[in-house]
Amino acid sequence: MSDTYQPDGTEDVPAAAVPPAEAIPALEVRDVTVRFAGLTALDSVSFTVAPGSVHAVIGPNGAGKSTCFNVLSGVYRATSGSVRFGTAELTALPPHRIAALGMARTFQNIALSPHLSVRDNLMLGRHRLTRAGFLSAGLRLPSARREAARHGERVAEIAAFVGLTGHLATPVGLLPYGVQKRIELARALCMEPRLLMLDEPVAGMNGGERREMAELIVAVRESLGISILLVEHDMGMVMRLADAVTVLDFGKRIADGPPELVQNDPEVIRAYLGATSETEEAST
Ligand SMILES: Nc1ncnc2c1ncn2[C@@H]1O[C@H](COP(=O)(O)OP(=O)(O)O)[C@@H](O)[C@H]1O
Ligand SMILES: [Mg+2]
């Protein structure tokens, strides 16, 4: 018997809004078609991201990679087809509902607030997990202060993991491009995702920055055990990192499987050779 007064058992609501470690479900993309006026950007594309794997979607410019990404994150609506993350059907959900299922993304072009510090940009990444909300934080309620402190600690941990500790107080806009791309990845990690979606994470980077980013992606997979969907133009990078590769060309899936099989596929070689001039343009 307890002598603590608990009228209806609602007193003891835990302060933490961080979800418990949940099982990582598969992401199943089935027959997804996306049409824009007169153009089929994705044509009945299917693939499965296995739990805890690095899955790459590659293809020449205009192949439909970003469109695919935008459908998975709810930015574009599929014309037909289905996307399932575990038991959830995503194709009718808005972006914030998809994010709430634990799918976090980065953008092909940097989407950070350049005037805010690295720390503040990362704190914004924790918004989905913030129970008290920024209003009560603004009112300085003690519970909100405690919660902010807890999120601040997690932000510091993630910053350390991604190698950003020394930059936490710096406005994002003052940092080099390669560092900004890592901040984007850190911000996505701040959402405690179960699936991390990276759109061309090494685009525009020099060789050293590319290697660093590749190592970071491996470290994320190994230490967090989450699934990673990597949309990438650069085939070499993908072949070293990915467990499975889906190749798109003009909106169609032309190959799917382990990297060593895919990279020797004649149709894949043809698609990439046909796009050589574009590839060179894109990497300058
Ligand atoms: N919002 C849109 N409206 C019209 N066409 C689009 C839109 N987004 C992409 N496209 C077209 O869809 C095709 C695939 O584009 P995209 O998915 O960006 O390719 P990738 O990322 O592989 O380079 C391209 O022909 C592109 O012009
Ligand atoms: Mg793209």
From TrEMBL:
**Gene3D superfamilies in the record, alphabetically?**
P-loop containing nucleotide triphosphate hydrolases
Per UniProt, the keywords (alphabetical) are: ATP-binding, Nucleotide-binding, Transport
In what residue span(s) does the ABC transporter domain sit? 27-275
Question: Is-annotated flag, keyword Transmembrane helix?
Answer: no
Q: Name one GO cellular component term.
A: plasma membrane
A single GO molecular-function term is:
ATP binding
Per the UniProt record, one Pfam family is ABC_tran
Transmembrane spans: none
Q: Which PANTHER family match?
A: ABC TRANSPORTER ATP-BINDING PROTEIN (PTHR45772:SF1), CONSERVED COMPONENT OF ABC TRANSPORTER FOR NATURAL AMINO ACIDS-RELATED (PTHR45772)
- Know the name of this protein? ABC transporter ATP-binding protein
* Organism of provenance: Planobispora rosea
